[in-house]
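Morning. Coffee machine broken again, so started the prediction first thing and wrote up yesterday's gels while waiting. Chain of 552 residues, entered below exactly as on the submission form.
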Amino acid sequence: MAQAVLHHLVADVVSGTVVPATVVVGDDGRIASIEPVRGPLAAGVLVPGFVDAHVHVESSMLPPWEFARVAMRHGTVASVSDPHEIANVLGEEGVRFMLDDIAGSPFTCWFGCPSCVPATAFESAGATIDAAACARLLDDPRVPYLAEMMNWPGAIAGDAEVLAKIAAAHARGKPVDGHAPGLRGEQARAYFARGITTDHECFTLDEARDKAALGVRILIREGSAARNFEALWPLLLERPDACMFSTDDAHPDDLLAGHLDRVLARAVAHGVPAMSALRAATLHPVRHYGLPCGLLQQGDRADFVLVDDLVSFRPQRVWIAGELVAENGRTLVPARRSATPNAFRAARFDARDFAVAAPAPRCEVRAIVAEDGQLVTKSATVAMTARDGMLEADPASDTLLIAVVNRYTAAPIATAFIRGIGLGHGAIASSVAHDCHNVVAVGASRAALADAVNAVFAAQGGLAVAGGEGVRTLALPIAGLMSDRPAEEVALQYAALSAAAKSLGSPLRAPFMTISFMALLVIPELKLGDRGLFDGVQFRFTPSVPPLSPHA
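Came back before lunch.
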């Protein structure tokens, strides 16, 4: 590129100052000089490009190339991305698909080695990544860290396979990311003593404070389903040195609307100094992970954003390696069609496949209680009355059926009960079901449940709404997780399906994102996997309909 000369206020996240300066970018894409200036300045402030410190690209329902095209519009120049969603479907082949798909993009997509595939031994995934596979992936220079170690019981107990994966990363000088929801006290100390350095799962301020005191980097998460910013933002005042930002899982409509630019603006609106917020989005992730991104220093790669101001952080223009990649909300990087690798069996179901037998005319069931904006759930004991020997959904009491159907091999369907989804009729289903990505569905009747699940299987992956105006589907042909269509088209379809789900009665902000985490066994309290209802506190299966006492 030709040499560029810019005259603006410059936010220096290393020194913590904002100064008027002339920034000269050389034809090698690096910053040749930054010199103070007293003359007239152009409007706006130059800041380093933003980094999402933990995100699952697959949750955007876009492949890496298209995800990057959208993220760059919002000033994001890099992401630390755990590809364990596609790895649970396709194994090492899935990780390499992600690496190949992003190849040639100016965006830095820092893909880690998934550490928990499958996430637990209590569910069925499409693949396994063991310690030997981890070592192979970590030998690839494109795989610079071990992604979130979700098996915290194994890490604490010294499970040989878990420790071998951690050791493989440490032996190669690569960091290990954490995942420790609600872990406190001695358990937290034992877990992080394994050389695990981050956590993005804090959902209370006290939890985040305790972990920060152990030297852990706290990733303040604000995604489409898990929204912890309001609980954790004071840590940016108390321990700004310990903080980074994460979206974790951002659905396509949210990603089109904004990314870390919105998180920065919210932080400043809460009274966080702009420099503390900026460092969490730039300096800290770049240094922690050793990212190649520049920090607006002389000699750095020219990765920076011209924002309106340090209040709104609205990006005007975005440069990566000195190239203008986005301007006024428009990506200048061309679109590119992705391949569509997948793993999905053919099957069809009817209402009988989702039946729950009643042990007595009147019995109690253990139900999952979903909470809007949270990955954690609660548990409720619900009294139910049988009809013809079966337990049915009761929309009037918000007690619905939830099912998880193995998409890889023929197996019995796991069916239980859930509250908090709020459907008055119909059903919704998704092959985005963390982390094994079997098909999860919630319905107000068994017939509607079968309709929604059948639509997902017919599409070989996707989202479906059954009820109201028949059955509507968003196909996700890349591993049943991502679309090969442009972001705007995917976002419109996703928004339409979300609206359809809400028209069935769901009060949730993101119904599909919420149900996708109802199968994530590693996050308490109660979840449903393809093999049954799982207690995430006791880390064991539990019956949905407890058997009658012999004395009953």
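Residues 487-503 form the longest helix (17 residues). Going to sketch it on the whiteboard this afternoon.
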